Structures are given as C-alpha cells and as structure tokens.
Amino acid sequence: MDGPALWPYGERMTDLSRIRNFSIVAHIDHGKSTLADRLIQTTGGLTDREMQEQVLDNMELERERGITIKAQTVRLNYTAKDGNEYILNLIDTPGHVDFAYEVNRSLAAVEGSLLVVDASQGVEAQTLANVYQAIEVDHEIVPVLNKIDLPAAEPDRVKEQIEEVIGLDATDAVEISAKTGLGVPDVLEAIVNRLPSPKGDPDAPLKAMLVDSWYDLYLGVVVLVRIIDGKMKKNQKIRMMKAKATYQLDQVGVFTPKKVEVDELGPGEIGYFTASIKEVADTAVGDTITDDKKPAAQALPGFKPNQPVVFCGLFPVDSNDFEDLRDAIAKLRLNDASFEYEMETSAALGFGFRCGFLGLLHLEIVRERLEREFNIDLITTAPSVVYHMYKTDGEMEELHNPADMPDPVHIDHLEEPWIKATILVPDDYLGGVLKLCEDRRGIQKDLTYAGSRAMVVYELPLNEVVFDFYDRLKSITKGYASFDYQIIEYRGGELVRMQILVNEEPVDALAVVVHRSKAEARGRAMCEKLKDLIPRHLFKIPIQAALGGRVIARETIGAMRKDVTAKCYGGDATRKRKLLEKQKAGKKKMRQFGRVEIPQEAFIKALKMDDA
C-alpha cells in the first residue's frame, strides 16, 4: 500500500485520494447522531466500553433534549473492501432551523454529504432546507434511508419522494438501521466510492479555514480548522487574515473523537489547534489562517455573518445577581459566537441585558444554560424582532426593544422582517394550518403535494411567528407538521406600540409592537390573562392596554377584603359604618402609593398568545 500507515495518528496521510470529508444532514430526529455513533463504533474510533449513546452530543442539554446544538467533528480510519485504508472526516450537524448557521459552516468545510431520511416519515421541511444548502456548495450527496427496521417503514415510497421533492436520484440509496447497525458497512463503502476526495497543494503557503471555536478552561480557545493548502505544524507562527492577529501554535491535533495530538496537518485534513488565545471573539468563524512569514496571497470567501432575528431582555430575579449574570453571559458568549448582548436598564426590572438570538429555540437553550450552568434565576421579557424605524427627518434606526420607541410624532413609518415559511403537513391537518397562517397575516405562495402530504409555502411577518407559532403548529397537527423558514425582506405595515399599564404604571417588559388590526384583540387577551395571573392585593388594580394615550382594553382585579367589623358584636350600626369608611379611605390611599407585585411566570404566560 502506498502512502504512510494510518496508525498511529501522529503520521499524516499524504495521498489525498484516500481522504473523504463529509457531513450528515437531516431533519430533527431522523437519526444523524445515531448514525455517527455507529460509524465511530464500526471503524473502531472508540471501544465498546467507551461508547455511549449520541457520543458526539457532549452537552448536558443536548443529551436531555435529544437534539444536536453544536456541530461536532470526528476523524475515523477505515479499511475498505479493496484493501486500501482511508481517513474519513465526519461533521455531525444540527437539524433544527435555529442552528442553521452551524450547518452552513460545516458544509463549507467538506466535499460531500450523507442525506439521512427517516424511511417511515419521509422528507421533512428541514431535510429540504439542509439539502439545498448542501447543493448550493456543490456537494456530492448520498441518500441514506434510516429506520428501515420499523414496521411503518416504506423505503420505496420515500425514494420516490426524494426524487419528486428534492430532485435527487435515489435508486441506489443506502438502506440502514442506525440503531441496530444494519447496513452501516454499506454506508462506509458508499462514502469511499461515491464521495469525492479533497484537492490541495501541500507545497503552497498555508491556507486554512476557521470552521468553529470554543473555550476550554485549560487550553484557552480551541479552534477547529480545515486545511485547504500547505501544512500546519506545532510551534509554527500563524496569522488570522481577517482579525490581523498573530499567534504561535501550542498544539495541533485531531478528534477521534478523543483529542489526539499530531505533528502536522496537511491539505484536505480537518483538525484543531490551540495557541493560548484568550477570547473566542478573536477567532471569527470563516476567517482564513495562513503562515505569518509566507502568507497566502488571497483569503478564502468565508461565511455570511449570522444575523440575530429575535431579541429579548434577560434580567436577574435578584438584582444582587447582576454581576454574576454579566460574568455568566460573557463566558457563554465564548462558546457561542452567534449570541449577542448589550447592557440595558428597565424601570420595572432593574439592570439586565438585551440579547440577540437566531430563533426561539436558541433563546430557550441560552436561557436554560445560564440558569443551569451558572445557577442564576432569570426574568425574560417578551421576545421581539428587529424593526426598521424611519424617522420624519429621513434617518433609519434599528428598533430592538419596543420600550425604546420614541413618540409617534417623530416616526414616519416602521418596517418589519418577513419570512418565507415552508410547512410540510399530512393532508388531514391542512385546513388548520392554512387558518393558522391566515390568522397570522400570512400570504399563501404555493401549495403542492408529495404523496399524501401537502407542502405549503407562505410569506409571514416574523413577529407573528416568533412567540408561539411553532407550538400552535405542533398542537394543530398533533406533531406531524414540519416547519422551516428564511428571512426574505423588510416590508412596511401599520405597526403600533401597545403598552400594558398595571395600576396606571406602564410595564415596559410587556410592551410589544403589533399590527393595528390585531392590537385590540391582543390587548384584550393580555389584560384578561394578567387578571388571572396577578395575585389580588388589598386595593383594586386596573390593568389597561393602550396605544399611545388611547386605552383599548381594560380589566380590574378586585381588592382583597379584610373583615374590619369582625370584633363588633351587635350595637350601633354607625360604628361599623365608621370602620368601613376608614378602610375605604385607607384603600384609596394605598392604591395611590401601593406597589403591585407581578410574579415572574405572569410575564411569560401573558405573552403566549393562545388562539384556541
């Protein structure tokens, strides 16, 4: 066999035709991480004793929710049926729409993809989104039908569906069961025989793409790279072309999935390095890494920067925890470069942070990680999207927080982000889905069928989707619908800020921007909900929804009544009346100065629009 032996890992593969770089793309729960487990096990990456379920999902939250949040990479050695040894670099990607940026950069680092489709459920919305991303970067795609051991599996129908909906030839799709390991050797052969090998020049100046980075307590920032040309060696001095920073490499290695140090990485290889970098912010994803003395002439094109689409405020329940929250958010930002934040203050909630996320699941994951990993109780304000606010002087500002909106006199008009949503749904639930989209100001663009399932394409305003559209969609379709979206443009509309006043005091955490046609219904619903959620006090509490100075809805929470006449037995009625009058005057005074305590759960529950 030509080329050096592949074991131990310290030796580098010089024959590029023996390297395969690929990622696994699929909808949520179609078995990507389980297939990755089987590939690691079959090629001997880990012993049976070291194996565990979803071995690449190493975050506690990933294991608990059964989803992949961060893309993970692993290098495997495989001896093919033709007797040759190959290096397989696998990147396991997330399936959820909120982590599409992880998928995007993982696909740019490899040449081919395994498209995993559940043989019982068929093509879903996220399958389409991810496979189109793979087609965009010119990937060779191998269709894999998973879960063929299930009684409900229909491989022939699903193959037809792949050809109809995606337009890929699925006649020689590999049929497997990732859970039992059935057909996994065929997948390995398909990777070797059907996916292309990488190209690159080992003698050219070093050119490597920065795919990901995260913070390690002992090593500082760990950087995942794909080498395009040249070689990366220990103790080499490198330069980040975008950040214009230079570092000396301390360690170069690969994941097997354990960290294994190597002497050097060459073209086509995927590995990691550490260089005593303190801040993940210094390692921008998509940057080009080159040799400091002999730099590459041109940088790689890189990736689109990820744009936060959902913003909300995070405040500590106990204001003494503010400094702890500041540290926690800074540490979390080291591991998640797509999460943005800045400080803000609120009259009702004190000091906190305005944070930007890629979607609601991303928001939920970040909030849960802060509460779990750093033990901080948080209050989350209403999620809102970024509006474009055109002022009367012609200036355009981005509006992240409805509470910051100036007097309507100074505003010419507002524009909101619109999305193109693709929903795949069984025919039985189509009516409910269409009604939901119409209720949310949707514009139907397309309706086609793939077998017994409808594929609906709608244009929707993002602020109608952002709070609980996904929950409503799942409940209407009993969990069978799948949903994917992308932002298309900003459009003008009759948008107004609705404020909620509790005891005539505005609660800025509950301020929302709504469409004028929805304002009254939304205001009434929020007042009714708050009436049930705010506990009764010793005085009457009015709850009002207002557009500017005009109140559009009102509810009143009755006062708790203390029986002040309990100690009066019989006798003159005037004595009782006197006590009641005194109580009435006290309540009036209390209503002027009394503070209304709004419990934390009232914020979230009030904001969930229930259309039922």
List keywords for this structure.
612 residues, Rossmann fold, Elongation Factor Tu (Ef-tu), domain 3, Alpha-Beta Plaits, 5 domains, eight-stranded antiparallel sheet, six-stranded mixed sheet, globular, disordered N terminus
Q: Please, could you describe this protein's structure?
A:
With 612 residues, the protein is α+β, with helices and mostly antiparallel strands. It folds into five domains: 16-194, P-loop containing nucleotide triphosphate hydrolases (Rossmann fold, 3-Layer(aba) Sandwich); 207-291, Translation factors (Elongation Factor Tu (Ef-tu), domain 3); 310-381, Alpha-Beta Plaits, CATH 3.30.70; 388-493, 2-Layer Sandwich (Alpha-Beta Plaits); 497-607, 2-Layer Sandwich (Alpha-Beta Plaits), CATH 3.30.70. 26% of the residues lie in helices and 33% in strands. It has an eight-stranded antiparallel sheet. It has a six-stranded mixed sheet with strand order 2-3-1-4-5-6, sandwiched between helices. Strands 22, 23, 24, 25, 26 and 27 form a six-stranded antiparallel sheet that branches. A hairpin with a 2-residue loop joins strand 25 (443-450) and strand 26 (453-461). The longest helix is centred in the last third of the chain and has 21 residues, at 573-593. It is globular, with a radius of gyration of 29 Å. It starts with 18 loop residues before the first strand and ends in a 5-residue tail after the last helix.
